[in-house]
C-alpha cells in the first residue's frame, strides 16, 4: 500500500474515533465509568462501586506532577484521594492542599543545652505523620552525646534507658530543609522540590522509587517505604495534607515536612509542640519579631555539616 | 517461501521481501543448534523463569523482600548494573583499534564485541528496572509526558547515555550485517560517523555512571575524583576479558575461526588496562589509610571491618587477589596465547573486578551511614534469583545476537572468497 495514501487516510475526519490517543481514551472511559456509577454507589451497589474505584485509580495513575497541576486539578486529585480512602478503607479523611503562606520562610532551631532526650518529639511525629509502625519509621532521631563532641555521628542514636543522664547532652536530627538540597538535585523526575516557604516536599505519586535522593542526602533525612506502611486504623491521623502526612504507598520516598499539614494552618510542627523542655523553636525567618529570629540573633548558633554548603534551615544553639 | 539464496542473488536488489527473509533467517540461525546448544538455551530460559517468578513476588510485596534497608539502600542490583555498564563500554576497546587504527584482526570480531555490549546494556536497564520502587511509574521519566530533571540529575544523564549507546550499538552492527547478508560491502559514510560517535559515547556511559556516585558529597567514599577514570580502567580490563571468554567459546564451538592474533591483541589491551587499574587502586588505598580521617571509615569497613561488622572483608580480599592474579597471568603468559590458559586468566580477572566494582564499591559507600550507623548488607535469596534471571537474560541476548551475526559473516566471507578465486 502506498504510504502517503495511508497517512491521508489516517487524517480523514471520519476516522476521528481511531485518532483519540490511548491515554485520553482511557481517561474518557474512566470518567464515564466514574460518573455513571457515582449515583448508584451511594445507593449501595458494590460491583459498580468497584468500577468507580477503578476509574478513580486510572485517573490517579495518569495525573501530572503536583507542581504542574492547575488549582482545579489539585482540588480534583485531593477529592479523588479522599473518595478513594472512603471506598477502599471506609475511612473519612480531610485532605488539604493548602498553598504556602505569603511572606513565610520556615526555620527551626534546636537547643542542645535544654533537650533531655525524653523522645516526646519522636513519638508525636510518628503519630502526627502516620509513620509506618511495622518498620518503626521515624523522621526524628535523638543522639545521646558525650561532652567534648558536637557531631551526632559520634553519639548514641539507639539509647534505651531512663533520661536525663548526668554528663550527657542530646542532639536531635531530622530533615534540615536545605536551601541547596542535594536530594532535589538528584531526583530524576522532579518528584521532590522546595516550596516557597522553605519546606522540602515529595510528591509521593510521582516518585519512582530509585532512592537516588536517599544516597544524595548527607544527613540521612529521607526514608523509603520498602513495604506497604501500616498504621492501626484507630491511630490514623485523618487531618492530612497532599504533600504531608497522607497515607504513603510502598516503593516511595518520604521525609519530614515540618508538618506541612499543621504549619500551613499556623500551628507548630508536632515535635515542637510536644517537646516538654522547650528545646525546639520553630517560626518564620522573615518575621523580625519571631522567636527563631531572636535565637539566631542572640544565641550561640551553629549548623551541622555546614562545610557541604547545603544551607540548611535548621540550626543548633546553646543557652 | 524459500529463504535459501544462491550465488546469483548476490547483486544489489530492491526486492522488499529480502528484508523479511533477513529477519526470518536470523531468527532461524539464532535458534538452530545441536543438543548441547538446546540444553544451554533451556537452562537459560529456566533461570529466567525463576527470576521472573521471584520478581512478581518483589513486585507485589515491595523491595522489603530484598536485603536492602534505609542505610544500605542500593545493593546487588545496582552493583551489577555498575559492573555491566563497564562491560558495555568496553566494546570500544575493539571498535577504536578496528576503525580508528584500522586494525584488520580486531575488525573481524568487532561485531561480537558489539553484541556483548548490547547484552550488557539490556542487563543494565533491567537491573535499574528491578531496583525501582515504582516500575509502573517509569513513564514519569520520559521527557514530554513525564518530568525530566535534566541537566540537574545525573540519573537522567545516565538514562540518556545508556539508551543512546544501546541504539548506536544495535543499529550499526545491524546495518553492517544487513549489507553483508545481501553480499554487499557496507557504505562507509552511512555508518562510520556513528562508529566514531559510539567511541566517545562508550567513554561517556561509564564516566556518567561514575559521576552518579562521584557527584555525591554525602558519600565521601564515592566523592573521589579518581572514581571515573578508575571505572574506565577496570572496565577496559574486565570488558575485553568477558569478550575474550566469548571468543574462546566461539572458537571452540563454531566453524567461525578466530585468529590467534586477536587473542594476543586483546591480551595486550587487557594487560595495559589492568595494570593502570591496579595502580589507581593502590593510589586510592594509600589516600584512605596513610592519613586516616573520618572519611576513611568506609574503606576501613570494606578492607578490615568496622565495629565488628566485616561481611565485605573476605569479598574484597578475594577480589583483589583475583584481580592481581588475573593481571599477572595475562602479563606473563608462558603459553603465548593458549585459549585454555587465557580462559582462566580472563575469568579470574573479570570475577575480581565484578566483585570489586559491584559489592566493593556500592555497599561501603553507604556504610557507615551519614549518622554513623554501621550495618551489614546481605542479599536475600529472592534478590539473588532475580539477579540470576537478569544475567541469564543477558546471556541469552548475547547468544541470540552472536549466532546470526556469525552466520552472516561466515557466508559473506565464503562468498567473497569465491569471487576472489
Automatic annotation (TrEMBL), chain A:
Q: A single GO molecular function, which one?
A: metal ion binding
Looking at the UniProt record for this protein, which Gene Ontology cellular component terms does it annotate, in alphabetical order? cell envelope
Q: Which Gene3D superfamilies match?
A: 3.30.70.20
Annotated transmembrane regions? none
Q: Which domain of life is it from?
A: Bacteria
The family database entries (InterPro entries) matched by this protein are listed as: 4Fe4S_Fe-S-bd, 4Fe4S_Fe_S_CS, ET_IronSulfur_Cluster-Binding, TAT_signal, TAT_signal_bac_arc
Q: What is its main location?
A: other
UniProt keyword list: 4Fe-4S, Iron, Iron-sulfur, Metal-binding
Q: Which SUPFAM superfamilies match?
A: 4Fe-4S ferredoxins (SSF54862)
Q: Where in the cell is it found?
A: Cell envelope
Q: What sequence ranges are listed for the domain 4Fe-4S ferredoxin-type?
A: 198-227
- What binding partners and quaternary form does the record give? Heterodimer of a large and a small subunit.
Stated name of the protein: Fe-S-cluster-containing hydrogenase subunit
Question: What organism is listed for this UniProt entry?
Answer: Desulfocapsa sulfexigens (strain DSM 10523 / SB164P1)
Give the classification, highest ranks.
Bacteria, Pseudomonadati, Thermodesulfobacteriota, Desulfobulbia, Desulfobulbales
TrEMBL record, chain B:
Asked whether the UniProt record includes Iron-sulfur among its keywords, one would answer no
**Pfam families on file:** NrfD (PF03916)
Q: Which of UniProt's keywords are assigned here?
A: Cell membrane, Membrane, Transmembrane, Transmembrane helix
Membrane-topology descriptor: Multi-pass membrane protein
Q: What is its main location?
A: membrane
Q: Record's Gene Ontology CC terms?
A: plasma membrane
Q: Which domain of life is it from?
A: Bacteria
Q: Where in the cell is it found?
A: Cell membrane
* Residues that span the membrane, as ranges: 37-56, 76-97, 109-130, 160-181, 193-216, 231-250, 270-292, 312-332, 341-364, 384-410
Q: Gene3D superfamilies, per this entry? A: Formate dehydrogenase/DMSO reductase domain
Tell me which family the UniProt entry assigns to this protein: Belongs to the NrfD family.
NCBIfam families listed in its UniProt record? DsrP (NF045798)
**Name assigned to this protein:** Polysulfide reductase
Query: What organism does the UniProt record list as the source?
Result: Desulfocapsa sulfexigens (strain DSM 10523 / SB164P1)
